[in-house]
Known about the structure:
The protein has 250 residues and is an alpha/beta fold.
Amino acid sequence: MLGFAFGGSASLIFAVRSSRARLPLRNLARDCVSMAADRAQHSPAAERNALPIRNELRRILKPASGSRPAIMLEIAAGTGQHAVLCSAELPGWVWVPTDPDETAVESIAAWRELEAAQDRVQMPIQLDVRQDPETWLAVGVPSPVDAFFCANMIHIAPWECCVALFKAASHHLREHGCLVTYGPYLEDVLHGIPTAPSNLAFDQSLKSRNPEWGIRKREDVEMVAQRAGLVLSERVQMPANNLLLVWRRA
Ligand SMILES: C[S@@+](CC[C@H](N)C(=O)[O-])C[C@H]1O[C@@H](n2cnc3c(N)ncnc32)[C@H](O)[C@@H]1O
């Protein structure tokens, strides 16, 4: 099993990779680790923000008690680093990562294996958040769930994905469940909180890569939430001008 710190994990992965050409693999177990390491994508940003996010999730999500595990459904799980790291030390919770991208799904599965997280992270599900929530069960998404988590999708996907996220959360969340979103937001117009120059530059670069992308105004996201029957219940300032927002049923 690899250590918690991604720096350590990543360096082991690179060590496995770089040693492959020189050393013949001795057994099947090592072969499997090597194959998983080849599929595991590494995002320095996900590595940096995983621990602060995990600390907040541990505070927000109470340890699950009772006969069934609590379910965290992650949308747009990307590399899978958040799934394996943020799910640690959440007693009684099972994490279900999803992403529409096939390479991401492979990466999540690889991280799950590398971090020996099979007991707390389920196999990833290929899912586009825009799919009709009624059809999610058919692709293996459990419902209802106790929480949703979605990091860094709202600004790096078309606006309709944000709308779909809240619609799906409204559809699949248990009564007292919550949706946790993480990423940058614009708060200057309605809330009077100036946008950091780095986020303004990031917004411009996102829009130049894809005109449908861009950092969203918090009030626009709140409007979408309201239409889905959810309200903002908590706003947490996170490192690097990101916010962690907690949404609950109105
Ligand atoms: C910037 S990455 C964020 C990944 C990860 N959550 C993180 O914070 O490191 C954006 C992710 O959004 C996913 N994504 C894009 N469009 C999506 C959609 N329609 N439904 C669900 N996920 C989507 C991409 O596949 C990608 O993994």
